């Protein structure tokens, strides 16, 4: 779950989010860490992504969705985890 290693070595794709969630749990009450938990659960299960693909209007507005995806990719690439950063 949280070994930090991906399937081919290196850092796993969800480990930085797991690390942020654990840090939050140790520093704050559990109720305040709900957004970190939600991010981690989405990372490992992709529930929101699958729901959006199954929606009837998935192919409507593909340009706007593509812009959102590019923005999300840019934010992921710039993301700096609080702890557990591979060096």
UniProtKB/TrEMBL annotation:
<dbReference type="GO" id="GO:0005758">
    <property type="term" value="C:mitochondrial intermembrane space"/>
</dbReference>
<dbReference type="InterPro" id="IPR019342">
    <property type="entry name" value="NADH_UbQ_OxRdtase_FeS-su5"/>
</dbReference>
<feature type="disulfide bond">
    <location>
        <begin position="14"/>
        <end position="43"/>
    </location>
</feature>
<protein>
    <recommendedName>
        <fullName>NADH dehydrogenase [ubiquinone] iron-sulfur protein 5</fullName>
    </recommendedName>
</protein>
<dbReference type="GO" id="GO:0032981">
    <property type="term" value="P:mitochondrial respiratory chain complex I assembly"/>
</dbReference>
<keyword id="KW-0496">Mitochondrion</keyword>
<comment type="function">
    <text>Accessory subunit of the mitochondrial membrane respiratory chain NADH dehydrogenase (Complex I), that is believed not to be involved in catalysis. Complex I functions in the transfer of electrons from NADH to the respiratory chain. The immediate electron acceptor for the enzyme is believed to be ubiquinone.</text>
</comment>
<keyword id="KW-0249">Electron transport</keyword>
<keyword id="KW-0679">Respiratory chain</keyword>
<keyword id="KW-0813">Transport</keyword>
<keyword id="KW-1015">Disulfide bond</keyword>
<comment type="similarity">
    <text>Belongs to the complex I NDUFS5 subunit family.</text>
</comment>
<keyword id="KW-0472">Membrane</keyword>
<keyword id="KW-0999">Mitochondrion inner membrane</keyword>
<feature type="disulfide bond">
    <location>
        <begin position="24"/>
        <end position="33"/>
    </location>
</feature>
<comment type="subunit">
    <text>Mammalian complex I is composed of 45 different subunits. This is a component of the iron-sulfur (IP) fragment of the enzyme.</text>
</comment>
<dbReference type="GO" id="GO:0005743">
    <property type="term" value="C:mitochondrial inner membrane"/>
</dbReference>
